[in-house]
Protein 1
Amino acid sequence: MSEKKKKKLISVVVPVYNEEAVLSETSKRLKQSMETCGYDYEILWVNDGSKDQTLAMARELCEKDKHFKLISFSRNFGHQIAITAGMDFSLGDAVVIIDADLQDPPAVILDMIQKWDEGYEVVYGKRLKRSGETFFKKFTAKVFYRFINMMTEVDMPVDVGDFRLIDRKVVDALKLVNERQRYVRGIIAWLGFKTTAVEYNRDKRFAGETKYPLKKMIKFALDAITSFSYKPLRLATYMGLIVSFFSFVYLLVVLFQGWFTDTTVPGWASSMAVILIFNGIILMILGVIGEYIGRIYDEVKGRPLYLVSYSENLSEKQKGQLLQR
């Protein structure tokens, strides 16, 4: 192995939120994989406002091994923001993003590094099987990935999560994107660069419970759609035009019946039906517009993406990042 290769650094970003049940095993498996990768490495825990012993356990790991580093948020800012912070603070020539629940096997990182050595700048993990997940979760995920591809003009790989390796140039490009409602895997697809996949079977969660209940899944899907597609707004416009056209036609029919026939009978039911249909459509359109306006509101406030309250084992260069976001 060449001396040049040994000097390269791989950063592993691990967002954690209430992961005390898995943290020890995750650190063990990550270290085993990274010790055999042939490069120097750092493993960066991003504590997203955990309420259990996750922070204390991460601090203990950092004290025992300087390969482990830690940044801890002042509160819970969300999974996508935690990923962003990890990339902001990373120093590696390549950065790996992986969750702490061990559903994505750390051993797959070695295959990603091999693809990176071949010249690929984005290497994402493509799930062939998803063990330990409900039919509802699998079905909605499958529908979502195909729906988002249909709704956007960005070619996003299907059946792919945030588990991936990205080159330093991709990380630097990602830092130029400062939007608040973040869909990181979509932003990376939008950036472009030379991309490939590593296929693997996703394991069931090692311990603990999912951090993506239905409510968060819906918000995540809305962030993805509104961040990369204006089609819902166009659909609202088309729907309004179609309804207006049929309303105008119906108005002509009513006028004709009123002026030239004696068949018109005032009816409360028909009037209420028309009112309810039109009001429902109007409210739906206003709801779509409101989603976009809400996101504009978040963007223009210009608040920082996250606030770091504690850090461990950071280099001087990394400490200099603390006030830059």
Protein 2
Amino acid sequence: MGFSRNSTTPVQEVKANLSKGKDNLSKGAVYLKDAGVAAAKGTREAAGPKVYVMLTKVGLKKARARRWPWVAGAIGAGIAVGGAAAYLWYRQRTQSIGESLLADELLDDAEEGPQITDEAINQELIERVSR
């Protein structure tokens, strides 16, 4: 802007830029928006933890609950359930082994002494189990 006839005012420059293409203005607006987003993100990352601590101290926000007690409880419950299942399996297995040993003993006794029929074996098993 000087004293020459060819000097333009700022309004004339903006109109000239608009007439040349709106591309420069739209790029500038996008640049400003991106700069604002980056500044906001940086501010949130820098000030967020401090603000959270202050809100917690003032009592406006609750502190996060700890997760490790839940994990420890879940592991303990899993161990208890697994132990109970293993004990039941062991008991059932030993009971079936005991029944088969009893049947073998009865059969061995039958071979040595007088002949025992299947009905007698069943009766003997019932009597020994019910005791």
Protein 3
Amino acid sequence: MLKRILFAVLLIAGACFNVIAQSIKYKSVSNQDLTYVLNNLQKRYVYTDHKTLSIAVYLVADQQGDVDAPADCKAPGSIYVAVSEVKPQQYVYKLNPVCDPKFVNWIKSKKMYKIAFSYGPAAKRKTATIGITLKKLVVE
């Protein structure tokens, strides 16, 4: 009988310690740019080749009225490109704000990964291509 009681007490104590060790905690993120991006994120497009690079393209609404955004634009937005390789190198690039950016597609290229996106007011839409490597972007 004493063995059963001792076993039950040890079982309950072990369960209590396990629950305490796994308590959920949080901390406030103090990086203003990260806070802004996450609160205004509209779309995310991801490309991974699993051998060298993982690329994520984020369209972020510029609701703060960025001074670089076009004055006549009703829906300014920024494009962020996050690039990481299999090794722990990671980079994030931000293109200047443009009017109503829209992701078009991924473009295959032998030298680098590329994305196409359109931007501008409805009557004057333009298309841009961005070449992506780990350590730089090339605007075409």
Protein 4
Amino acid sequence: MSNLNSLRETLARKQAELASLEHELRAAQAAQFSELPAQLGVETIDDVIKTLAPHASPRLKGALAKAFGGKLPAPAVETAVESESASPAAKRERRKRATVTPELKDAIVQALQAGKTSNEVAAECGVSPATVNNIKRAAGLTKKRGEV
């Protein structure tokens, strides 16, 4: 019986300690949030939200637009998040499509007949391997499945 009472007392102490730690956590979060505008170089938490709004999920953007009267505000300041958010693929410009002329097709066919691989020919001619394979098939240089 005394063991049970001891466990109850220990549980009560741990619950009090948990409540104290939760209170400390809420205080630390409040302090951190109050310092956030200064760290980002804006005046208020509202400015922080306006700055981060363009980076929100579509669902949150809709809710923010309603809160701001139908339209998302322009960011108050440019943040480091904007420059880091763009992926390398988004920064890279798309390659211009190659124009496949009859002369280029002839050069590709000759290179394939000389024994070069599709990837080698594609790199030399500035076209994709898929384009080389399409030209190869159209020229009759491929075998159907099951042919030896």
